Amino acid sequence: MYRTHTCGELKITDVNKEVTLAGWVQTIRKFGSITFIDLRDRYGITQLLFNEKLTEQLDKNPLGREFVLQVSGTVSERSNKNKNIPTGDIEILISEFKVLNKSAVPPFTIQDDTDGGDDIRMKYRFLDLRRNAVKKNIELRYAVNRAARNYLHQHNFIDIETPFLIKSTPEGARDFVVPSRMNAGEFYALPQSPQTFKQLLMVSGYDRYYQIVKCFRDEDLRADRQPEFTQIDCEMAFVEQDDILQMFEGMIKFIFKEVKNIDYAAPVERMTWEDAMWNYGNDKPDIRFEMKIANLKVEGKNYFEGLNKTEFAVFNNAETIVAISVPACSDYSRKQTDELIDWVKRPQIGMGGLAFVKVNTDGSLKSSFDKFFNEQQLKELAQYCKANPGDLILILAGKEERTRKAISELRLYMGGRLGLRKPEEFKLLWVTDFPLFEYDEEGNRWVARHHPFTSPKPEDIAVMINNNPIIENADKYLEHPYSKIKANAYDMVLNGNEIGGGSIRIYQRELQEKMFAALGMSKEESQYKFGFLLGAFEYGAPPHGGIAFGFDRLCAILGGSESIRDFIAFPKNNSGRDVMIDAPSTIDEKQLEELQIKLNLK
Amino acid sequence: MYRTHTCGELKITDVNKEVTLAGWVQTIRKFGSITFIDLRDRYGITQLLFNEKLTEQLDKNPLGREFVLQVSGTVSERSNKNKNIPTGDIEILISEFKVLNKSAVPPFTIQDDTDGGDDIRMKYRFLDLRRNAVKKNIELRYAVNRAARNYLHQHNFIDIETPFLIKSTPEGARDFVVPSRMNAGEFYALPQSPQTFKQLLMVSGYDRYYQIVKCFRDEDLRADRQPEFTQIDCEMAFVEQDDILQMFEGMIKFIFKEVKNIDYAAPVERMTWEDAMWNYGNDKPDIRFEMKIANLKVEGKNYFEGLNKTEFAVFNNAETIVAISVPACSDYSRKQTDELIDWVKRPQIGMGGLAFVKVNTDGSLKSSFDKFFNEQQLKELAQYCKANPGDLILILAGKEERTRKAISELRLYMGGRLGLRKPEEFKLLWVTDFPLFEYDEEGNRWVARHHPFTSPKPEDIAVMINNNPIIENADKYLEHPYSKIKANAYDMVLNGNEIGGGSIRIYQRELQEKMFAALGMSKEESQYKFGFLLGAFEYGAPPHGGIAFGFDRLCAILGGSESIRDFIAFPKNNSGRDVMIDAPSTIDEKQLEELQIKLNLK
């Protein structure tokens, strides 16, 4: 036993107790002939008082920051109490101490506001993890994990482990593969998700499955992507979409309560994908604030009638014109509106410019295109945009896709500027009725928007079965009946982030075969890759569906952060490297030989 | 909503309720003009009654076993109640039914006593998982998982995920490796255990860590080994061996209580490795029964004095002579003793023969070597072996290692024959004080018996530091001081199976470097492979230790089975293949090109 108590628990009621603590030296303050040391462990910080005699000992063999100490002494009331920490009423009068281990001077300070940059903190991650700021994230992650498990357990879900060494069936993202030594020339793949296995478990009758499980994707890493990531992976049998939405909004609300002590009583809003795109330009809208898009013109069609009467070429030539009414910004200066214009012209946004209308509080209107719109026309426009006095209407015009994306970004940007995206406010949203297919221009073929196991909406099944998937005229793919098919799929959105997504699955062999064919797979290919699933569907597959939550991101958002990396104990950098252990790395020639592979470097 | 209730919950108190159920057809029994169907789901079986009219419908479109049905009807009291199932008091008078999915005739019966062989059940694992016998195993596994998590949570452990894509540092078993595309020519390795990461977490101050986590070993598969397996992986800081033993015998006892409702009140016995080998010939003795080994002669030294007086060449020439006294077998016939002789002569045991002494209940003695031992000599031998009247003393003689192993096997065999290894009796044991090193004849070097991070016993640290690890004379390695060093390591044994093992770790850089050197690693090699850990030890590493439990095996033993495969949802066969999904498999040329590797088949 190295300690009788932790550094976080001693209180005024413990005064006079003989205790032994162990932990790390946080600070050392010499004060005349005595020494104060703050000793830190996972649970807190306790002040130690080294008397004159012990201080003399320390003078001879000085301690340093991060030394590991074991100390014994008497709990004593402090004269100058520290109200900021739970142990702030007491200190320990040290009678004995032992250095359990020394420490070199850390390359950065172990404090909330550390002086260490990203790179050095990644390399010394084991020291970064000591900082309170990081520790809180890791603890929050555990709390979310625990809350999810408890909720799912209460609802009869069963955690069943699915295999990590599976079969490579690349659809979409690349697989990580693992050469097999015992079956030379063959490879396992690491799962991108346990999708097919959880469906098999439904076929097996385990009607409520879950797993908090690592998944793997060999993608070029964008910021905040990790090659290995964690999912809360769930599946249910004998359910329809509504059953799943209710079950899992319940789970997220339970997590809010357990982890953040938030009572999320309001029902979770539901929105179709079409509405989300129309009103927010985005399939994962942040609904903590309104500022919906006004669709003045879409794909050449004037929705705002005032556009029929103008000679403003920019508007007349544009495929799409969209606007947002930003509250309390009608007094923006020229400098401020110029800033916004520069913002939309940045390459990430890529617009040619920005038009605006100031809806002044006195009722007057002032626009950047007064030459082409008179007061009455502006008034009608402001009305169409549902602008209120004091609003600044921002208008973008251009190609449909880019313009819609840009107005969505601008909305988020303005929301952020105005402080409407409060990190401690949480707003959930279900987005439903996604398109089943997306058109892949390069391959002139359909790809599954969610994945190939997603069922079409019941009313669209006939459309799928009765039409040939072949796209005769690539330019007119939007006219193909497949482009109209809706998926029985849903995403859960939290504060503008997709935190989970799922679908009702196909469970009939014929429909699944039709889906594989629609995606351009030959019979042989679908049989080779997914024969086991097609086979399973012949032996009494029940209707089923499920969802997977991005666990890393969920934790990050609950922790009020944008970065998932802060919530992973040992993350990789943007090149997929673990710079602490220096992985990946070369391996022995002998290992390659045993695996019967060799390098083939370009 | 596909159902209002499950097939396991309706009782006599539900009579007259209108209900909807969904599930699988277990059996169909036509009874005159009506039909009984047993409908099965995860929760149980409910009897359905189809009236005359519906039976006519069934006649036109017959159902089959494993069809998926949705049925609605009224709960009704049964006339012939079935006391064997919880729903046996009621049946459902069906008013409506719908076939949700058909089923082909399954390749084996979905029953406890299935007619399917191993291979077919592996191929159709999704059907095998429907069988109650398998479902019970999967449910037990979840119960063990849940109990372990709850216990560890109550004791302040925190679940922290460690990475799966790490660095290859083969020591002992082979790593599975994963070629990196973004860092071509380099490889990740899949973890054989999270050992170094959990130690880093101790350095980071997370003083109680756990994880239930997949680990990977590319070994030639013996029966009941899996390339991927699951550990309950734990580590604690500021602890000594006794703290760990107490904490984790508490965990196993908690699991006994939660999962099997067993109150394991007795303290867990502790035994040194030396005692285990001496008394049981085995480092994981099954202590559900006594039958300890009598060591008559060990490595040439007579412990039983009677051996000094005999002219029995077999005994005189043997290096080691060991015996067990098997109760209530003194009346074994010639045929029975011959059977035992054959048993020890099998190649797996490899002994030349077996001597025996019958200690008859009337006090007389009869041996297989009466020519060499008179009555008095036999009496002394029986006394030395602590034999009781009615015992059959079985004696093996030969080379120390083989003979000790053989007597250990014979003891287990006789224990099994006598019904002393009761599957529902659970007996825990800690084995401690293992040798730190084993001698590797091939390499003429020391290898770590547990792993290179295990600390020597405190009293042996000086022996390790002050002696050169080089073995000058390979024949006399036992005389090298390193062969006497004991490890601060411990195994938990349950009914003769090692279910967990761990150690107090090295936490000082110098000692860890000495250990790597002792194992024949150069400075460069140890720096390349474990530099991050050596580095971490410089920044205030606390004393720490831990343990890992083989989760699959723990579940199997609790489930009363010898085979871990029965407790894994989707196991691999002895060639490391998943025969259901057919993995591993070949991958596309394009994938190989992207990874910049190629096949190099011999």
TrEMBL record, chains A, B:
Localization (cell): Cytoplasm
GO BP: aspartyl-tRNA aminoacylation
Region of interest (Aspartate), residue spans: 195-198
Name of the gene encoding the protein in the UniProt record: aspS
Job description of the protein: Catalyzes the attachment of L-aspartate to tRNA(Asp) in a two-step reaction: L-aspartate is first activated by ATP to form Asp-AMP and then transferred to the acceptor end of tRNA(Asp).
Chain sites annotated for binding ATP: 217-219, 226, 498, 550-553
Subunit description: Homodimer.
Catalytic activity: tRNA(Asp) + L-aspartate + ATP = L-aspartyl-tRNA(Asp) + AMP + diphosphate
UniProt similarity note: Belongs to the class-II aminoacyl-tRNA synthetase family. Type 1 subfamily.
Key words, A-Z: Aminoacyl-tRNA synthetase, ATP-binding, Cytoplasm, Ligase, Nucleotide-binding, Protein biosynthesis
PROSITE patterns assigned to the protein according to its UniProt record, in alphabetical order: AA_TRNA_LIGASE_II
Entry's Gene Ontology molecular function annotations: aspartate-tRNA ligase activity; ATP binding; nucleic acid binding
Protein name: Aspartate--tRNA ligase
EC id: 6.1.1.12
Binding site for L-aspartate: 171, 217, 450, 505
GO cellular component term, pick one: cytoplasm
Start and end residues of each Aminoacyl-transfer RNA synthetases class-II family profile domain: 144-571
